[in-house]
Amino acid sequence: MESFTEAWSLICDYCKSHITEVAYTTWISRIEPVNLDFAKGVALLQAPNEFHRQTLNRCYTTLLNDAFSEIFGAGIQVQICVPDEVASSEKQEDTSDKNDDYEYTFDTYIVGPSNKFAHAASMAVATKPATLYNPLFIYGNSGLGKTHLLYAICNEIARTHPEMNIIYIKGDEFTNELIEAIRRGTTAEFHQRYRKADVFLVDDIQFIAGKESTQEEFFHTFNTLYEAKKQIVLTSDRPPKDIATLEERLLTRFEWGLTADIQPPDFETRIAIIKRKAELLGIDVPNTVVEYIANRLKNNIRQLEGTVKKLKAYYLLNGDAPSLTTAQMAVSDIINNDQPVPVTVEKIIEEVARTFGSTPEDIRSSKRSANISNARQVAMYIVREITQMPMTAIGEEFGGRDHSTVVYAIQQVEKSMARDPKIKATVEDIVKNIRDR
Fold this sequence. Notes:
This protein has about 425 residues and is an alpha/beta fold. It has helices spanning about 1-15, 20-30, 50-70, 115-125, 145-160, 170-185, 185-195, 210-225, 250-255, 265-280, 285-295, 300-320, 325-335, 345-355, 360-365, 370-385, 390-395, 405-420, 420-435; strands spanning about 30-35, 40-45, 75-80, 135-140, 165-170, 200-205, 230-235, 260. The strands form 2 sheets. It has a 5-stranded parallel beta sheet with strand order 5-6-7-4-8, sandwiched between helices. The protein has a 3-stranded mixed beta sheet with strand order 1-2-3. It starts with a helix and ends with a helix.
């Protein structure tokens, strides 16, 4: 159906805001929407080849399912096919705009009292990179526009200085790439990639906290770029001093330049955000509907924009013009989707592995090196702390270990946390990172 092809651009927008530009261009932008069957709860997407499909299934299924839930509500599951599996008569012409970077410019960023300072600082950095504020550190709660400002800086510098090498990455992806480089023996190439940047932007820098190897690598990367007078921009959900397990030498460097915070938008700014988003999406939203949304969603710009996207999706798929009824449905979906996602054991083990420079496979294995044993014990402790699973069930998740092993591990971590503030801070940071994802 043609409306699904149009609505696909909303899914692309969501994906763009959650992964790097390179990852989006390589894997998501080459997907074609085929069919959306609400009755069966299936969204059929086409990958260009089998290898591409396997990569999507392995690495991006969760992202795509989350995107469909965000736009259409819960109950839609993604299925990936390849060209041979889809009759030509069922294919759709791909008319979606895959270059919606207009969404992430300074022109589309609504400025109000809550973000005026951060916006001005970002504009200054984009106008004169590495001249005024270096590094620029922007912090604020999730969904307030930090990533938008990073993309706006990228787009403005790319427009005015096309010769510059601009690199954007998320903090946890920096850690993952480093672990992979160490595993493959390609750390020299890793160094080359990041230390040759003219503009280096890191989103959610708090995710490198507590990870010794990552902080060591980031320290040297930061120094190399700073000394070469290259622009560095960082974002976080909290100011540097509140990142508990951030090394002192990094804390000091993060505060060398300018620190700017973003607060939740006031009512007038929320109204402006909703109207601007509706204008960009080409839909007419009555003032009563705009005010209803602004009064219900007060602390998150992403939710405001997500609601307008849902109104557009309702119109494309069902022909429902924006009204108080559709707005109530959209806001309800947003609020329900915003509830904390149940934390899985896999997520916990992955985060612990990143922190300790290990792998989930090592943590579940019988390996007994000190680092892996410590990581395993911390993982068991956090699984118990967050999920409250029975000890026997936790043991099963860690390679079929006896419940007494789990009890011992938890006791050891509790003792370590009681006597060593650094270990306590590390565990607390891991828990916060897991819950904030």
